[in-house]
Amino acid sequence: MEPVRKHVMQLDKGPASSLSSRFWVATVTFGIPIKADKLEIELKRHIFEAASRLRVDSDFFGLTPLSDPGEDASVDIIAVSGLGGHAFGSWKSRAKHDMWLRDFLPEAVPTSRIFIYGYDTKLPGSLSDASILELSRRLLESVKSTRASAKNRPIIFIGHSLGNLVIKQVSRSGLRRGIENESLMTMVRGKPNEELVRSLSESSPFLGLLHKMSLERFNLRDSRILCVFETCTTTTVQWSEELGKWTRSGPNVIMVPRASAIHARPNEKDHDHLSINANHSDIVKFSDQSDADYIMIQSRLESLSSRAPEVVRRRLVELDEQLLQTQKRYIKRLKAPDSASFREFNIDDPTPGTLSGFVLQPAFQRWVTMKPCYG
């Protein structure tokens, strides 16, 4: 049960601010698959009494930290996986054990905290009937819990497929339309997550409403949205009577067409529309740091990470100025007198001799002449 390589084990503080000083999280990649419950038993057998709070998990639901520079952190990067995806495995190379968000990106953006976010949307097999709205609320609560002491720190969201829609519901940004989901509907018909998958279709009225809301509420001109789309088809799934299970043997389709992956808002720049020559699943997997597509994405993330703190600082300054001007307008409407002028012209000068008798009292004289802390 040894990790495949030393560098694929990463140790970081717990994600929630209230727990980060007491709990640590390690992500470990093993060359031979092992069940989480069996690994937990083995670890507790070796650690004994110190293992009472040890938990081993392979689902990665909620926020999992991959890199945390501590007090040097200036930006949070949160990656949200897609429909039926695994919070960690969705971003991991197929050919190697590297996972670029953990093993490559921290070196490029050393002052960024990096998290992955996972939720239950297995196809089929999910017991959850959570909607996009409910998934986004859980994400928002998780984000709030890890930023209690750094509420003004910039956030860079990375979304894959459904992850973009969950992010969109949180921040009013993301995809405009939907995904080609006809092959998915047969997998979830009659299941708890059928409505979730139905809401992702290109004809879904929900997505149209979500896009309209994003245009109305997410109107920060200094924010950036990068749209990345696939150029290779994905083999869809279908039920195999011979094997008695779902297999990738269906028609090849572009799961998210280019038109659905761009136009998150009117003022997008063409140079922020990036294509990757991969299918829907592999678009977020990079085998090594010399991968041309990874270099492109890393460069954009470096740029966003470096400019984000100043962008947020300017927003806060502008917000303070707007608040000050609003306060002045309301005070003016109240027709309240200027406090300095009111004091100068409406309060009489002190009467000569006021309190002179008090300051001459022996008790007051003793108090004034006492040593510090004795009065």
TrEMBL record:
Q: Where does the record say this protein resides?
A: Endoplasmic reticulum; Membrane; Mitochondrion
Q: Which InterPro entries match?
A: AB_hydrolase_fold, SERAC1
Q: Name one GO cellular component term.
A: endoplasmic reticulum
Q: Which domain of life is it from?
A: Eukaryota
UniProt keyword list: Endoplasmic reticulum, Membrane, Mitochondrion
* PANTHER family reported in the protein's UniProt record: PROTEIN SERAC1
Its recorded name reads DUF676 domain-containing protein
Originating species? [Torrubiella] hemipterigena
Ranked from the top, the taxonomy reads: Eukaryota, Fungi, Dikarya, Ascomycota, Pezizomycotina
